[in-house]
Amino acid sequence: MKTVLCALEFPPAFGGVETYYAQLSNYWPEEMSVIDNHEQALVNKKLPFFSWLPACFTISRTIKNSKPDWFIAGEILPIGTAMWFLSHFVNFRYAVVLHGLDFSLATQVFWKKFIAKKVLNKAKVIICANSYTAKLVSEFINDTTKVNVINPGIDAQLPSFRPGLAHGLRENYGLEHCFVLLSIGRLVKRKGVDAVISALSSLKTAIPKIKYVVIGSGPEKEPLHHAVEKLDLQSQVIFLESVDNESKWAWLSICDALIMPSRNISGDYEGFGIVYLEANMFSRPVIAGKSGGVSDAVQDMRNGLVIDEESPEAIAEAIQTLNQDRNLAEHLGEQGKAWVQENFNWKHKAQSFYDILKKAL
């Protein structure tokens, strides 16, 4: 089966969607051709309203030269637009992948919503990265038969880092004998870092040796720094704008819990949250909210604690629970590692995706 993935969000760019497509292509059972936007092969933003026209020409040439069985649209708009338009003139199969925010944005403006419905109705297969988005998409097109869920996966092998790196981080940041919380991600409102900071203000007395490490940058950077200063939490909160992958693994290994109480803000919701799985791989429990696709990644009392992401009091209670009951924290972390290894292996995820397309031929 010849498969071609057309994706704007692909390495060397970095992010959850880029990682999804990179791993999908790496673990695809047969050879997968990838067309990204190198040299504007798919999109030219200098063409207002018709930025997707280059994709039409690129896909047409690919059909003529290699006659693939499937094209996969990495983005509903504009790549899906090109495939839908071209399908009126050329006979080929295409599938669309949706992650969450991409679908939300595609349905917030009338003309985008109109085109998105056309793209999805014409698609032979729709793959959603989480159950929440799959439900929204099924309701949007009034069809459940072609909507499938393929969650992101994770490498089965635990990432390694230099000996002594974790100890060095503990020493450099004064983390010895502290309860260490960790958040990793872009600093946007939906990640809920502000809610964690609010929760910490009520825990200063109860957990005097608590430390909260926030790794990431984004538009909420200044408001979050201001909140820390206002609540006098400078000695509890550590901001790191960016770290390399090796340091990221070291931080996951030394934290006591990963915390990311993501929430839904006007359709901007967490599509999945691969970092929850990464924390579990290091046998760390997680604290998460209920919004978006997070429920596919975190189950309450299985690999972490699921709380009301809008409530700083509920967040504080979850932190207090894991701090006081270290046996529970360890148990959730170990269960989480086993669950991730069993259910989120990228090789198995890619095979499931492949099997769906194979069946739909």
- Main β-sheet: number of strands, strand sense, barrel status? 6 strands, parallel
- Give the second-level CATH assignment, the architecture of the largest domain: 3-Layer(aba) Sandwich
> Overall mean pLDDT score?
95
Task: Give the strand line-up of the largest sheet.
Answer: 2-1-3-4-5-6
CATH class of the largest domain: Alpha Beta
CATH homologous superfamily heading of the largest domain: Glycogen Phosphorylase B
Shape: elongated
Give the helices and strands as they follow along the chain.
EHEHEHEHHEHEHEHEHEHEHEHEHHH
What is the share of helical residues? 40-55%
Structural class: alpha/beta
Proportion of residues in β-strands: 5-15%
How many helical stretches?
15
How many individual β-strands?
A: 12
Distance between the termini: 9 Å
How many domains? The number is 2
| Radius of gyration over all CA atoms, rounded | 22 Å
Identify low-pLDDT runs: none
CATH topology of the largest domain: Rossmann fold
Which labels suit this protein?
361 residues; Rossmann fold; 12 strands; six-stranded parallel beta sheet; alpha/beta
Protein model, in words:
- The chain has 361 residues and is of the alpha/beta class.
- It has two domains: 3-153 and 345-359, Rossmann fold; 165-343, Rossmann fold.
- It has helices at residues 16-27, 53-66, 76-86, 101-106, 110-122, 131-141, 165-172, 193-201, 221-230, 245-254, 274-281, 294-297, 312-324, 326-343, 346-359, and strands at residues 3-6, 32-35, 70-73, 94-98, 125-128, 147-149, 179-184, 210-215, 237-240, 257-260, 286-288, 304-306.
- The strands form two sheets. It has a six-stranded parallel beta sheet with strand order 2-1-3-4-5-6, sandwiched between helices.
- It starts with a strand and ends with a helix.
